Amino acid sequence: MKTFGWMMVAVLAGASDVWAGPVVREAAGANAAAIQAAVDAFRADLGGANNGTVAGTQAGGRREINWDGGGAAANVTLDPSPMTRFSGRGATFLTPGTGFEISGQPAPLMVELNAGYAGLFAAFSAPRVFAPLDSNVMDAVFHVPGNTAVPAAVTGFGAVFTNVDLAGATRMRFYAPDGALLYERAVPAATGNATLSFLGVSFNAGEVVSRVEIVTGNVALGLNEKVGANVVVMDDFIYAEPVATAGLTLTPGTGTTFRSAATDFVIALGAAPGALTGGRIWFDGYDVTASLLGCLRPGTIAGGGQTFRCTLAAGLVPTGDHTLQVELQFGAERRRNAVRWSVVANTEP
User: Fold this and answer.
1) Is the pLDDT of residue 240 over 70?
2) How far, in Å, are 53, 155, 343, 348 from residue 241 at the CA level?
3) Measured between alpha carbons, how far is 182 from 172 in angstroms, rounded to an integer?
């Protein structure tokens, strides 16, 4: 344990003692050109190509949804909640409302819901846009592309919005696989009708996101736009390649706060998809696999499964927010999870 402690001190000495936060790309303006640079920068942050509907988790790249299937001639498309139409891209959508609509004929851009919407919305990638019905709240949850039974997480998510003219009302909340809120941010607003806004958030310190809650304006689609009310719909969704989290849990969970006491870090693996062939562990983006291997002690989970426990000595981790990410390889399949917790002091309270 003494050797492990010295190794970890050497690694953690270079880690940031204050969480710098995620990378945020945002813009708003009168047309697509006003947000294009932010959208392109976000794509570059995620890296790689658009993997489209290729089944299974890919080694890199991202996924995108632009709602434009069928082109300008397509009719209005309605889906229930949960909406699994884009399960091949690794995302399912839910709303407390009655479902979802992708705009289309006979009245494009949601005008069939309210004649007063004529000229209110614009498409970033023409011609179709998207929104929940009878609610202004929805969730995007992630799974392995092509397999809704295997939950997954991403390292970044972004969306285009139109007609965001009430500051602070339209926002996104990003949640870790253990359900803790990682980050929240309002979508930038722009004055006027048919404006476009973009918000993309990527996490480069190891955090992963299993759910994004999206709040569009402050009233549901179909209601009138009037003073104090802001109706908002969406266009392109862009997000990192989903990687499975199924069966892999980390303790302590996200949001845990420590002082000086020693901490037991536990990796728990339930049903594995096959034989373990490799893995890596990162602390604040630093690869600490070699340091932790000498510390992890194996155990079992009641009912089947494996645990690996390591005790982090008191005072070993610097004060501040820290992220620990674990990725395990089972042949061609991966499991990945992460937690973020805080050390508020290295002295007793």
Assistant:
1) yes
2) 11, 8, 31, 42
3) 11
The model carries a pTM of 0.92
The label of the residue with tokens 């395990």 reads 328
> What is the pairing mode between strands 257-258 and 333-343?
parallel
Return the SS3 of 141: strand
DSSP H/E element including 174: strand 171-175
Q: What is the mean pLDDT of residues 175-183?
A: 96
Q: Go through the chain and tell me how many residues it has.
A: 349
pLDDT digits (tens, 9 = 90+) for 320-334: 888 989 999 988 899
187 and 161 Cβ atoms separated by less than 8 Å: yes
Which residues belong to CATH 2.60.40.10 in the chain? Answer: 2-17+245-343
Range list for CATH 2.60.120 in the chain: 23-242
Mean pLDDT taken over the chain:
90
Model confidence over 85-107: pLDDT tens digits?
999 999 999 999 999 999 999 99
User: Which residues is 196 bridged to in the sheet?
Assistant: 29, 162
Task: Determine the number of helices (DSSP H) and then strands (DSSP E) in the chain.
Answer: 3, 24
Q: What does each C-alpha distance from 120 to 126, 233, 348 come to in angstroms?
A: 15, 10, 57
The answer, yes or no, to whether residue 56 has pLDDT greater than 90, is yes
- How far is it, in rounded angstroms, from Cα 19 to Cα 342? 9
DSSP string, 4-43: HHHHHHHHHTTS-SS----EEEEEEESSHHHHHHHHHHHH
Of all helices (H) and strands (E), which one includes residue 290?
helix 289-293
Whose CA is closest to 344, among 11, 18, 16, 10?
Answer: 18
Which residue has tokens 């002690």?
Answer: 297
Q: Look at 2 and 110; give whichever has higher pLDDT.
A: 110
- CATH topology for the 2-17+245-343 domain: Immunoglobulin-like (2.60.40)
CATH architecture of 23-242: Sandwich (2.60)
Q: pLDDT per residue over 294-311, tens digit each?
A: 888 888 877 678 888 988
